[in-house]
Amino acid sequence: MNLQFHFQNISDVLKEDLKEYASKRFEHLERFASTFQEDNKMLNIHLEHYEKHNAYEIKATLQLGGKTLHHEETTHDPKEAIDKTEANLIRQIQKHIDLLREGKQQ
Fold it and tell me: Can you list the alpha helix ranges (DSSP code H) found in the chain?
């Protein structure tokens, strides 16, 4: 799976830490998305820090072949936002695979 990161208002030290953490967390997506071709899987992560509210917003867009899955999460802890985003994307992948299976069985 191809991962692309975009950061706004985040220090370089935190960028590297979050990039490493997110890469490890989003490896779990690979297991669920293994039925799709490797060249058709791309995950874009946009992480932004809002100083006024001390909040982090993550926007994730996962492209699986012709399907685009999207999730946004805002929390005060960037790692928590990454965890919640991963869980939501896994749920969406499972739902998409189930719909594909139902369509093939009919």
Answer: 12-25, 27-32, 78-105
Where in the sequence is the domain holding 36, given as residue range(s)? 2-105
Tell me the pLDDT tens digit for each residue of 2-52.
899 999 999 999 999 999 999 999 888 888 787 777 777 899 999 999 999
Using CA atoms, how far residue 65 sits from 39, 40, 59, 99, in Å, is: 8, 5, 19, 15
Helix (H, G, I), strand (E, B) or coil at 4: strand
Tell me the CA end-to-end span of the chain in Å, nearest whole number.
30
The domain spanning residue 52 has which CATH number? Answer: 3.30.160.100
89, 62 contact by CB (below 8 A): yes
Q: What tokens were used for 3?
A: 């991962």
What pairs with residue 64 in β-bridges?
41, 67
The C-alpha atoms of residue 53 and residue 34 are separated, in whole angstroms, by 38
Q: Distance (Å, rounded) from C-alpha 32 to C-alpha 95? A: 11
